[in-house]
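Researcher: Please translate sequence to structure tokens.
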Amino acid sequence: MAKLVISTYISGGGLWLFLNETVILQNSETLTLELKEDEEYVVHWFMNGAPGSSYSITISSPREAQFQLTRGIGKSGKDYGGFPFRT
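Model: Translation complete:
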């Protein structure tokens, strides 16, 4: 099994992080999950926050999903994104 290690942070708002169609993290949290080998997954997120604040997402494991994002929140107060990976 592969180990998924994710941490999120948001200042001034809400952040929802999904693995496929399931919410796995909300706002500022850290999570470790076991993933099946040789499977396809999609990590995606939506955030809603005060313009000028920021959020970050860090995935440190598995290697196939490693990801680092730190972004300021624009005038709309919303942002989203995602990416697929295979273990």
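Researcher: Any highlights?
Model: The chain has no helices and eight strands.
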